[in-house]
Amino acid sequence: xxxxxxxxxxxxxxxxxxxxxxxxxxxxxxxxxxxxxxxxxxxxxxxxxxxxxxxxxxxxxxxxxxxxxxxxxxxxxxxxxxxxxxxxxxxxxxxxxxxxxxxxxxxxxxxxxxxxxxxxxxxxxxxxxxxxxxxxxxxxxxxxxxxxxxxxxxxxxxxxxxxxxxxxxxxxxxxxxxxxxxxxxxxxxxxxxxxxxxxxxxxxxxxxxxxxxxxxxxxxxxxxxxxxxxxxxxxxxxxxxxxxxxxxxxxx
Length: 252
Ligand code: SAM
Fold this sequence. Notes:
Elements: E1 3-5, E2 11-12, E3 15-17, H1 20-29, E4 37-41, E5 46-56, E6 59-69, E7 77-83, H2 89-100, E8 104-109, H3 123-139, E9 147-148, E10 152-153, H4 154-163, E11 167-171, E12 178-179, H5 180-184, E13 193-198, H6 206-214, E14 218-221, H7 229-243
Bound molecules: S-adenosylmethionine (SAM).
The site of S-adenosylmethionine has 18 residues, from helix 7.
C-alpha cells in the first residue's frame, strides 16, 4: 500500500484529507481509484489504513478503516551530525540515513568544510531536503519524518549533543580511534539517544577531535579502509543500529 505523511489536522471525524500534491500523486500518477487503500501517517508514530472514497482533481479523501502504531521507528533516537558535503552527497546521506532510522540530521560547518555555511541553505535546497526525507520515510515505512535542523558550527554541534543527553561517537581516521565494534559494545541496549559526527571530504582537524573527546565523544574507527564521508555516515549509522538490535524484524 502506498504511504503518505499528513499533518494531524488532516485526520478528523474518521477521515483523512490529503494535500493537493498528494491528490495529484494519488489520482494522476498512481491512478488509484475509489475503493483502493493507502496508508496515512500522522508523523507522531501512528498509521491509518484508508479506503479512498473521493478522488477529484485537487482533492482526495477517504475513510479510516484501521489505526495502528507504525513499526518503523528505532527505539533509540539517532542524531547524525554530518559535515556539509559537495553536490548531491549530502542528499544521499539524508536519503539513506532516513531509510536506516536517523531521527535528526544536523548539517555541520567544520574547519575543513569546503561547501556551505551557516546561512548557506537556500529556500529551494531546504524544500528539496524536506522532500527527500519525506519520500525516504514513506518508502522505508518510518512512523515519523526525520527533522533536518539548521546548520551548526562544529563546537555548537558538540554542545547540542551534550544538551540532548546523547552518547556521542565521532568516526575518525586517525590515532586513538577505538574499533567501532568495541566502542558500540559498551552501549546499554536501552540507551535513549545517540549522536554520530561525520567529517567532510577532507576529514576532521585533529583539534576538533580533541575537543569532541573533551566533550565526551568517543572517536571510532570504521576499519582500515578510508570511506567517502557519505559512505562513512551510512556505515556508522548501520553498525550502530545493528549493535542495538534494530535489525530484528518488527512486523514489517
Ligand atoms: N583523509 C581524511 C582523513 O584523514 O580524515 C578522510 C576523510 S573521510 C573521506 C570523511 C569522514 O568520513 C571522516 O572525517 C570520518 O568521519 C569518516 N571516515 C571515513 N572513513 C573512516 C574510517 N575508516 N574510520 C572512521 N571514520 C571514517
